[in-house]
Design a protein that fits this description.
Blueprint: H1 2-10, E1 16-17, E2 20-21, H2 28-57, H3 61-87, H4 98-113, H5 119-149, H6 153-186
Helix pairs in contact: 2-3, 2-4, 2-5, 3-6, 4-5, 5-6
Length: 190
């Protein structure tokens, strides 16, 4: 009996059978996954309207360019999410993302609370933008993993592509901070 118990506890359970998914079409996990897609869809659409504001508020041309470049990428990400919804047989639908709404609000307060034309404002804008990037990185990483677990390989590939773009945007913002903005802000008089 001890042998049978040991064998049962060490046996791996796979979510796939013969390469095909066995997740039911009406599984709670799939519904949760779709709900989280609505959340990130709202977040991306919100960033499409927010990134131009950040670009206009930025002082450094390099930072303005980084926001403009990421705006173009974000528009592509919105379209990619619409493809994800289509692969799931659903119309793209947004559900307010409270986390991104808070991050955007914080970014707006940085604009209000910092002096126009300063590198200190740019430091704040980069910090706010990186908070958004980190939220997106964690969301897309989790969603890509869930898609793989659900056997949605095409969806997972699309989400993974966006994940890599978000990591790149975060890295680009760090580069702008470290090579252009942080030092300039450190020597600004209060």
């Amino acid at each position: 009996m001890a042998k049978a118990a040991k064998k049962a506890t060490t046996k791996k359970v796979s979510p796939k059978k013969g390469g095909a998914t066995v997740t039911p079409v009406n599984s709670m996990l799939l519904e949760f996954f779709k709900d989280e897609l609505k959340d990130i869809y709202w977040a991306e659409k919100k960033l499409v309207s927010t990134l131009p504001k950040l670009g206009r508020a930025a002082t450094s041309k390099v930072l303005k360019d980084a926001f403009e470049e990421h705006l173009a990428v974000t528009k592509i990400q919105v379209t990619r999410l619409e493809k994800v919804f289509a692969l799931l047989g659903k119309k793209a639908e947004a559900k307010k993302c409270e986390a991104m709404a808070g991050i955007v609000k914080e970014g707006e307060s940085i604009i209000e609370e910092t002096e126009k034309g300063t590198s200190t404002r740019d430091v704040g804008l980069i910090l706010a933008a990186q908070k958004a990037e980190h939220y997106e990185i964690s969301t897309y990483g989790g969603l890509a993993d869930l898609a793989n677990n659900l056997g949605l390989e095409k969806v997972a590939a699309l989400l993974h592509k966006t994940l890599e773009e978000e990591k790149h945007a975060d890295s680009a913002l760090s580069n702008v901070a470290n090579t252009h903005v942080n030092y300039a802000a450190s020597v600004e008089k209060a």
